[in-house]
Write a structure and sequence with these properties.
Oligomer: single chain
Number of helices: 7
Structural class: mainly alpha
Radius of gyration: 17 Å
Order of helices and strands: HHHHEHHEH
Shape: globular
Distance between the termini: 51 Å
Largest sheet: 2 strands, parallel
Strand order of the largest sheet: 1-2
Length: about 140
């Protein structure tokens, strides 16, 4: 009984986080400072763990089709896209870093920039622009 309750609470927390991340991704479509694709990927992963119904819904949205499907179809990102994504994130975090004097927040911002850089280099395959065009065609 306790295990089922814990799982239920955990799924609800993931579900709420998924909506928050998806909201940030939607804002990222308009505001160039937020990296939309990774946020939609994260929201999809959170929905997959918390609500298969909403994960299926998300996959039908224009947001998902515009940002995630091309990434999944090509199996990676061009070096330029990776650098742009990392640069925008680093710049955004740098501004926040300068505005916030709370040391733990600064540490977290630095960790996000470094972590994203490491993930982009080690976890996401780098493809050539020609590969991207060929796989999308």
């Amino acid at each position: 009984m306790k295990q089922t309750f814990r799982r239920s609470v955990f799924e609800k927390v993931l579900f709420v986080l998924a909506w928050l991340v998806l909201g940030l991704a939607a804002v990222g479509v308009v505001v160039p400072l937020l990296p939309t694709t990774p946020l939609v990927l994260l929201a999809s992963a959170l929905f997959a763990r918390s609500s298969p119904r909403f994960d299926a819904w998300l996959r039908t949205t224009r947001l998902y089709k515009s940002y995630v499907v091309p990434f999944r179809e090509t199996g990676g990102m061009t070096a330029r896209k990776k650098l742009t994504m990392w640069g925008v994130t680093a710049a955004t975090c740098a501004v926040s870093f300068l505005l916030v004097e709370f040391v733990p927040a600064r540490v977290m911002l630095a960790a996000v920039v470094v972590g994203m850089g490491v993930a982009l280099v080690t976890k996401i395959k780098t493809i050539t622009p020609e590969e991207e065009a060929r796989r999308r065609a």
